[in-house]
Specification:
With 267 residues, this protein is an alpha+beta fold. The protein has 4 helices and 13 strands. The longest helix is centred in the N-terminal third of the chain and has 23 residues. The N terminus is likely disordered.
């Protein structure tokens, strides 16, 4: 009887440990629940394919991104019958608040818990970035293309204000540069920041692994704020503004509570 109780207790401890360990890393299934966003009402020429481990976007003078809301239980379901989803449009301005206040809000990832983000990517080529930025590091409309881009939308802690940290692969721009993209939509002015996580042609056609300190990157861009819940992640390849072509592939996207090796920016 004592042996049975000991085995039962050990099983409970191991089960608890296993559950805790599994939640320490949130891995995205690349085949599930990605919503398309393009600027041509779903008629853009970009083509997406995916399996459980990777997602590929092939572009030819085109641009499209694929996004989801990651949670501890898997991607949040998005109603595909909504008009803006059917038209591959951007989510409405209250989308982040709706997600943060929704029934699955306890399952959302918080940057304070899931501070580290890792992934791997592969591109067929880089895109000419001679005209990507001006002298002040602002992205120019005619050069706003990247072989691969990955973005994470984060709510400012304690508010419904939306922030974004994104990473790009460029041809010649220095790694760890922070590029500024400003745009106006109707009455609203938006500011986006792109961190150059990879640059150059040396590893074109190869899988390149990345490990980022998402909290540190957020603080680089918004030094007076604290990050809160993650309400969206997207992957993108685009070549429309430069009238070029590129294929980008993304895999092994993971949010982690523990620090991986070779993380950037280094402390």
């Amino acid at each position: 009887m004592k042996e049975f109780k000991l085995i039962l207790l050990l099983s409970i401890v191991l089960a608890s440990y296993g559950s805790s360990w599994s939640q320490a890393t949130i891995s995205l299934d690349m085949s599930q629940d990605w919503t398309r966003r393009d600027w041509s009402e779903c008629e853009d020429a970009s083509i997406m394919s995916s399996d459980h481990h990777k997602l590929t976007i092939a572009t030819e003078r085109s641009a499209a991104l694929y996004w989801q809301v990651p949670t501890k239980q898997g991607p949040l379901g998005i109603d595909s019958s909504l008009g803006w989803v059917e038209e591959c449009d951007r989510p409405p301005r209250n989308f982040a608040k709706t997600v943060a206040d929704g029934p699955q809000r306890q399952s959302l990832l918080d940057v304070s818990d899931y501070r580290y983000f890792t992934w791997k990517w592969n591109v067929t080529n880089t895109i000419d970035d001679a005209n990507t930025i001006d002298a002040n590091g602002r992205i120019q409309p005619d050069g706003d293309d990247f072989a691969a881009k990955l973005g994470i939308s984060i709510l400012k802690k304690g508010s419904n204000e939306l922030r974004e940290v994104s990473y790009v692969w460029t041809r010649n721009l220095p790694e760890e540069s922070v590029l500024l993209h400003e745009k106006t939509i109707l009455f609203w002015r938006f500011r986006y920041h792109r961190i150059v996580a990879q640059t150059g042609d040396k590893q074109v056609g190869e899988w390149v692994s990345e490990a980022r300190d998402l909290y540190a990157d957020y603080k680089r861009i918004y030094p007076d704020e604290e990050p809160g819940k993650i309400v969206r992640i997207y992957v993108m390849s685009d070549s429309d503004n430069t009238e070029s072509r590129v294929t980008g592939t993304f895999g092994d996207l993971r949010f982690q509570t523990t620090r991986p090796g070779n993380v950037s920016p280094s402390e």
